[in-house]
Amino acid sequence: MRSAPLLSTLNHAIHHPVRTFIANAVKAEASRLQVLAFVDARWGIAGSRAQTRQLMADVVTSYISGVPDLLDAFTRAATNYQLDPLILPSLQKAGGYFLSPPGCLIRYPLLHALFAEAYLAHRLCEEIGDIVEARFGRTLAPYELTRINVIAHSLLGDALAEELETYTAEEVARFRARCEQGVQPQVSDVSLENCAWRDRDVVYH
To answer: Dmax of the chain from CA atoms?
Structure first.
């Protein structure tokens, strides 16, 4: 059984910088009306449909902002089922999409990139959850992920969403390998001081 201090270190390393970055980034983008601009660009919702426009903006914001809570829920479930050695590395990867974004997102504005990173995190959790349920008969997800991920896919567009799926497939393959090999997780050196997110306002604009 893993000690409580080590679990606390793992959970903090995975989630705290991600939660802090997402909260700050979403607040900044909302103040610049970038969420509404993203919805307008992707769905072309006219001003006369203001209620629908705002609803979709709320969906986008919630999808991004909800990632830390989703990772926390998966961590708690994995720990309760004593599956954390298998699952925590993938949760760390899901959070890492925000701190060290895939290179394919460099060409996108910050809000668009944030939504894509949230899609990566949600899709990875969806896949890991499906595998765990099929293999171990345990449920990790606190809510159904497929439907919201389908909506996110449509907002991103097929070209980008399918490109992002290659990242999901790579991590899922690593997760399956851990299931077969019983590999123990490593604690990554993740902190607010050493993560690439500090430069993202430069990278994405």
So the answer is: 58
pTM for the whole thing?
0.81
Q: Dump pLDDT digits (tens) for 132-177.
A: 999 999 999 999 999 999 999 998 999 999 999 999 999 999 999 9
Beta strands in the chain (DSSP E): none
Distances (CA, A) of 59 to 33, 123, 152, 195: 15, 16, 9, 27
- Residue 184 is given by DSSP the state P
Nearest to 149 by CA among 192, 106, 120, 111: 120
Instruction: List the one residue out of 150, 151, 165, 152 whose CA is nearest residue 102.
Output: 165
Task: List the structure tokens of 70.
Answer: 């989703």
